[in-house]
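Reply to dn_fold:

You asked what the input looked like. This is it:
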Amino acid sequence: MYWLSWMLGAAILVAVVLAALHVAEGRELFDVAGRAKPWWLVLAVCLQGATYLAQGEVFRRVPRAAGYRLPLAAAYELSLAKLFIDQALPSAGIGSTVVVAKALERRAVPRAVVAASMVINIASYHAAYVVCLGIALALATARGEAHVPVIVVSVLFVGFSLAVTTGLLFLSGRDVDRVAVTLRRFPALRNALVFLKDADPHLTRRALLLVEAAAWQTVIFLLDAATMWVLIQSLGTTASPGAVFASFMFASVFRTVGIVPGGIGTFEATSVWTLKRLGVSVPVGLAATLLFRGLSF
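and this is what came back:
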């Protein structure tokens, strides 16, 4: 089943590239790529490397609050593992959560603390998503580029994210056995509820932990958007940082809601289209997007 989703994503990506080449001459695309400035690319690599440090800090928040030390190097390794699984397997983040949880348990972190850490990680991610997406919508609206499809998908995703954040924080540490029984036909959801039951509510409902984790998640979004902006600069084009941030957030939404691993194809299509609407030419937008995907993968 996974290979089918990969093939679908690859087909969409090829279609996006061919469509972009149809709009802009292929030679123009190669000319743009040939103008890439190496030092800007080095900066882009450094920005991407920093995203794993930020994610690692999210993983370290809860264990530290509970009196357990997670070394920075170990947190960085967990961040790399999480990214790989999230992009390789379309499991809505469940697969990577399981891997990270087991890794923390192997480090003798109690299950209640591990479960609380995963709750804070997911809740803070969605909370940061809501904040960043709201800013992106405001920036696009101010430029007159907030189109109906983007607004509809963004608003629906904001509602979903708010529901996920609220549900996680409310259910963590509570007796959910009755609900779990009704979900016996859906093992993944049932196991997730049982995991929520084990979370330490004193940690998951500590507002400061959630705020700190959400701040680090926001830093990740900013670093990713900054990477895209730097890549556009490396191709000899100047773009508004706000416009690039809005474009990146909209592309991220379509990547997240897509059924293909890592949103292959859907991210590229949305990124190129929104960048074009915000003043970046198709060749530059496509080249920067493909470079970003290469770095992030």
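The radius of gyration is 20 Å.
Hope that clears it up.
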